[in-house]
């Protein structure tokens, strides 16, 4: 298949929690509403738990969501990432970095660099110094990281929910010192190859969009649009995590939640029970979500999920009964 597409790209590090699931369902709904293909990417270059990728796909299949193509698996695409780095290197835009995290934290900021930016320690080293530093790392069983040479300029992208996102683009990592290709590189290469022209994902990744837009331009990728949706938080106000209790699909199923209950909670979490017109009754299926969600009026505030316990498994955390 060809043509524009949207995607969901979870890391197979464990079971998906309800916040991840809501983001994936919104990505699917947006693709269906706009006539895009819905694709799935398995980002398995870093933290991987055996069987997690298949389990994540099963959860979405149970919710009525099946990708339009076989999932793209990042660990099978190392040659594509290497080729992208070679393209950038040939343009003089890649250099080796020998710094540890401590080195970066302790180094003084570079003049005119934004706060938190890489200070440029290894940017202009002479060849003799590079040979020495490379040998030191090799003796310790390590290799240099590879960084993109930038001008620390601020880049602005448009977002369908957040308006404009402006962030500085520093000399960010393309390949880590352990040889793993970095997220900002792989996501750009894979989105371009798959025809992803709109990215729907959690707003915790919004600050990455300017970096990815800049890198995409350097690699000749088509321009993308962005839609960063609000996160689901735990009771503490921090991003929802598995330590918060029964938050995964498997845990909620064990407590008696049905597919309809999941969709009813998504409806409530997006404002369906007050303030946002998402239909007269809670959703029960993926078709209800696709027909009912209006991204133009999607609220920007995060939602809070209070995990049910065995004692209240028959009701939602807000006290309302699950839909039958």
From TrEMBL:
Residues 7-251 form the Glutamyl/glutaminyl-tRNA synthetase class Ib catalytic domain. It comes from the Bacteria. InterPro entries: aa-tRNA-synth_I_CS, Glu/Gln-tRNA-synth, Glu/Gln-tRNA-synth_Ib_cat-dom, GluQ/Sye, Rossmann-like_a/b/a_fold. Keywords: Aminoacyl-tRNA synthetase, ATP-binding, Ligase, Metal-binding, Nucleotide-binding, Protein biosynthesis, Zinc. PROSITE patterns: AA_TRNA_LIGASE_I (PS00178). The keyword Zinc applies. Coiled coil: none annotated. This is tRNA glutamyl-Q(34) synthetase GluQRS. Belongs to the class-I aminoacyl-tRNA synthetase family. NCBIfam families: PRK05710.1-4 (NF004315). PANTHER family: GLUTAMATE--TRNA LIGASE, GLUTAMYL-Q TRNA(ASP) SYNTHETASE.
